[in-house]
Design brief:
Strand order of the largest sheet: 3-2-4-5-1-6-7
Number of domains: 2
CATH class of the largest domain: Alpha Beta
Strand content: 15-25%
CATH architecture of the largest domain: 3-Layer(aba) Sandwich
Number of helices: 10
Shape: globular
Order of helices and strands: EHEHEHHEHEHEEHEHHEEHEE
Length: 318
């Protein structure tokens, strides 16, 4: 992309500055990240970096003594399921705001090596960041993208999900920023499975049986005990949600791929807010904790909802 020198202010109404940084190689990565991080430290901001482990080590080495003042998070751990990441930033923002400090973050959710389904959720996550934080406490988030090694569709998608975009040479407002894409993506059907699918329906009295069926499916596939237990818990939470919010009934589908076990719950309910389950609900809020818990525990969770119904697909990597 063409670099534009300078540091424009955030677009009007965007106290949250959300910027994509496109880099070509290791040297270019550091050229874009180091000035951003050091500027934050000079301004006495709280600087928190969420990157996969290799990038964290690279940045630590380059920062030298300054690394001690930076918070480091392993993106592969906190954001293996991209639906967890907003909750992490929300918690960090609250902590730093309470401490009287402005937050400056770096987050690379769409890192090289992700699976196609994960990249899809990274795009939805990046779009939802704007909805989650626009109009709130001012802070900055820089999202690096490896334009040399990432799929072209992922790089192009970053221009749609970030109000600001640039390179190590400078940044500008993204002319391709399309915040309304979040509705289109949240409404879109998930890819149809190509493997054999087991299906069943359930009602209020069938939640325990649904949990047992999912447990048997997990065991037949040879999932490790811990992952099988997590999948059972997710089944219980999601089936219960269907009963409570989806006209009392739902459908469960299960299938296996060479790399994963997939369980999908669908019902006739409608979730209006795409952020549901991504942030810890307030103590006084009724409901909403089941999906949040599923997001925290499971490898990948994909949620889609329209006026015709809601689908939650849980993928457990083998």
């Amino acid at each position: 992309m063409t670099a534009v020198l300078g540091r424009p202010d955030a677009p009007d109404g965007h106290a949250f500055e959300h910027e994509a940084l496109f880099y070509r190689d290791d040297e270019d990565f550091l050229a874009g990240l180091l000035p951003f991080v050091r500027e934050g430290l000079e301004n006495d901001e709280a600087v928190v970096v969420a990157e996969p482990r290799g990038r964290l080590e690279q940045l630590r080495d380059a920062l030298g003594d300054d690394a001690a003042a930076v918070g480091f998070l392993d993106m592969a751990e906190i954001g293996g399921n991209p639906a967890r990441i907003i909750g992490v930033w929300d918690r960090v923002l609250q902590e730093q705001t309470a401490a009287g400090r402005r937050l400056r973050g770096v987050g690379e959710p769409a890192f090289v090596g992700r699976r196609e389904s994960e990249f899809l959720e990274c795009r939805l996550h990046e779009l939802l960041l704007n909805r989650a934080f626009d109009g709130g406490v001012p802070w900055r988030l820089l999202c690096p993208y490896d334009e040399t090694h990432l799929p072209r569709a992922v790089v192009r998608g970053a221009l749609h999900s970030h109000p600001l975009a640039g390179t190590s040479a400078g940044r500008r407002p993204s002319p391709d920023y399309a915040p309304d894409d979040v509705r289109e993506l949240f409404d879109a059907a998930l890819p149809v499975p190509t493997d054999a699918v087991l299906r069943g329906s359930y009602g209020a009295a069938d939640v325990p049986a649904t949990r047992r069926t999912v447990a048997q499916f997990a065991r037949r596939l040879g999932l490790p005990a811990e992952k099988a237990e997590i999948l059972q818990l997710a089944a219980s939470e999601l089936a219960t949600n269907s009963v409570r919010h989806g006209s009392g009934t739902g459908t469960v589908a299960m299938w296996a791929t060479p790399s994963a076990a997939v369980v999908e719950f669908s019902d006739q309910g409608h979730l209006e807010d795409p952020l549901t389950g991504r942030r810890l609900p307030p103590v006084d809020q009724e409901g909403g904790r089941g999906l949040f818990l599923v997001n925290q525990l499971c490898d990948l969770v994909q949620l889609r909802s329209t006026e015709h119904g809601t689908v939650v697909r849980v993928t457990t990597w083998r």
